[in-house]
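Help wanted!
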Amino acid sequence: MVDELLTRNDRWQIRIRDLHKSFAAQHVLRGVTLDIERGKINIIIGGSGQGKSVLMKHLMGLLAPDRGQIVVDGQDIIGLSDVAIAKVQRKFGMVFQYAALFDSLNVVENIAFPLLERYRLPKKDVLARVRDLLVRLDLARVPGIEQKFPAELSGGMRKRVGLARALVDRPEILLYDEPTTGLDPIATKNVDEMIRRTADDFGVTSVVISHDMASTFRIADRIAMLYEGVIIANGERREIMAAPHPVLREFVETSGAVQLGRRPS
Amino acid sequence: MTAGARTPSAGGTGPEPASGGGGHALAAVGRVFSPLPGAIALFGEHVMLLLRALAWLFRRPFRLRLFLDQMEFVGVGSLAIIMLVGFFTGAVTSLQAILALSLFEQQRYVGFGVGVSLARELAPVFTALMITARAGSGMATELASMKITEQVDALTTFAVNPVQYLVTPRLVASALMLPVMAMVFNVVGLVGVYIVAIVSYQIDLGQVLALFRWGVDPIDYIQGLIKAFFFGVTMATCACYQGLSVRGGAKEVGLATTRAVVSSSVTVLVLDYFLIQIMNVLFPYGGG
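Answered by r_m:
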């Protein structure tokens, strides 16, 4: 069983087993067990303060758990050295809730940042990669975008630049932290499409944490629900929609986004 | 003064201890010292941040551009304000010194008196306070807003250590630029002395200069610059600590900035006292 977990699996890229994490008296994660499917959009839903962000930070090795295992491509990432964890982190790209672009750097410098920090590449190669991403993410048509600073960009554009920065080192896994929070319905739909297209075009595994039910049911391949520190429901979108867990049902129906499991047709 | 009876505690509802009540007296003493563990912990956290920033100074990669950017921000950016304050500090101190010295008809000592004051105290302390107000507040605000907008977290996802990337350059730039700016302060302050004493009060330049050369030693300047160096370290540590320890939203950014300026200014003045004591031992006054 342990050996099976520690060998590369063609279907499951990240495997989390019995993950526990406490902050002072707060027991946030109480034994999370979850598999993330390669090349698919995996959405983890849950209310505020249920530990979604904490779980996400564990995936990238930014937080160390009190107990449990996280296996990425057959490699247990808990307790690795700084150098080894940095190597694992290169497989990941993270898209922050509000993009988290560096204010003091312009768009090109922001996108190029991971490359410049990690490798010694010729300047023109870096610039070529950045420009390629600007084109692919539909940013190149904005006049003068390369020299603009984050403060001069709209929220949606900032998110795209943040995505470009996450993609520039060709990650295998993209993490999105509440990508649609604070956006209007049209912008939400654009971001949904951006996530879907990125997953298809770049062939990355996407892990999205969200409490936006409408978005989740629109783009997810797999859905997991984190509730009180454990995963209470987990499966493909169709399975989840057909037979939802009572807490999930309440969560979804309160949001008014979709009707579950009792469609008249 | 009644011993330990009254403490200006925030609540103020605690019963007044009866005289001779040992338990009450102990509780009162406890109340007086209750903020102490917190203060010690806070001091310790500042020292830890300082040590971590120093340790990262010697580890790759070395990002020269960040250091130069910060040196420009702390130094060049503060040049105008330092010159303005330096000039008027020299001029105002000269005015007061001339008034006092005229009691003894010894106005020619003005260059010596103000020169020593500037070199040993006024230049390093005022430079530290002005740069705290300008650059220290800027550092705290910048780091705090980077923290709440997750830019600091973003750095860690690229395996960049935030202390190395953000704190170390600010610390080094402040430690190096404060002595430079204190020296600028000295020079411009002496211009202020010249304008007031020589141009306005028409005191004999030859006598003022002779007494200045007799009374002001290089060691006075060296002491001032050593102090400025430590003030730079103090200011950057306070500002970066407050910036990086912020949680919450925009309001907290403002509070962090206020705390940074207050804690840095107070620490500079307290540290000044101890540095003077140390230097008095190392370089006894009047040795020249």
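OP: Thanks! One thing I noticed: Chain B has one domain: 59-282.
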